[in-house]
């Protein structure tokens, strides 16, 4: 009914603005028409006799409304709507290339398979729709962002995801191109804790919206994760090393998990941990020995449970340097002893 009466649907009126195409002489005509309208209203007010006040008011409003419609028609009103020029604007598409995209939780399929099906630069379902109206440019990102050409393939091997650095590099790559929007496709996992305020301020000032497409489940019913490892950066050969391992769990209340500490495939220590129901995040202190000097990569690993969907977050690595030398220590004690 609205479109029948006003020619266009309501959403078009909501997005557009009214303008008039009339020239200066129409303003003069308006004055000449409004003056008799005022005279008519005043005349109706002074009319007496058998007419009632409501009748005079109705007649005055009707005549004034007719004159207003005529004036509006003379001004040639138009509805101005801004639309994007087909393929005239760039849409930057950032695809997550990190290791966590290999997790199988998209209806029994890896997250990466959904990205390939929907956003492949050549055959993606959403890519084809974007290409009808925009000029899409693709980037893959993990620790940083790189342009993704049609012949390139995603590796899904990045160990960290730095979204702030990726957005900054995409901004430099797009340069002066007329950018309609950015689309970020990511699962948000293994993200470096960096601030996005400064990066987003530029896009906000430039009027470039950023749309985020989340991939994968945001929570798992049963999951164990090593979120942090705190231990010294240096140690002496043969010395005992203490490490604090922060373990988070969901759905494993009061169950036991086995924590393994390895150095280049060699088992250094093993600890059985009880995952407390009242502590979804708990710190476990473990001790181990390193008998070889040099830089070492120590891996902390929890043996995955049989029904655990994600096992990639069960592992965390830490680096330290083992020194093969005698440490000189001056030690003071309160009282003299036999030693």
Question: What does this entry look like structurally?
Answer:
The chain has 339 residues and is α/β, with parallel strands linked by helices. Helices cover 28% and strands 31% of the residues. The strands form 4 sheets. It has a 5-stranded mixed sheet with strand order 5-4-3-6-7. A 5-stranded mixed sheet has the order 9-15-14-11-12, with no helix packed on it. It has a 3-stranded antiparallel sheet with strand order 8-10-13, with no helix packed on it. Strand 6, helix 8 (197-206) and strand 7 form a beta-alpha-beta unit. The chain is elongated, with a radius of gyration of 36 Å. It starts with a helix and ends in a 16-residue tail after the last strand. The relative contact order is 0.10.
Keywords:
five-stranded mixed beta sheet; alpha/beta; 8 helices; single chain; 339 residues; elongated
Most strands sheet: 5 strands, mixed
Number of helices: 8
Our measurement of the CA-to-CA distance between the termini, rounded to an integer number of angstroms, reads 102 Å
Q: Which shape, going by the Cα principal axes? A: elongated
**Strand-pairing-aware structural class:** alpha/beta
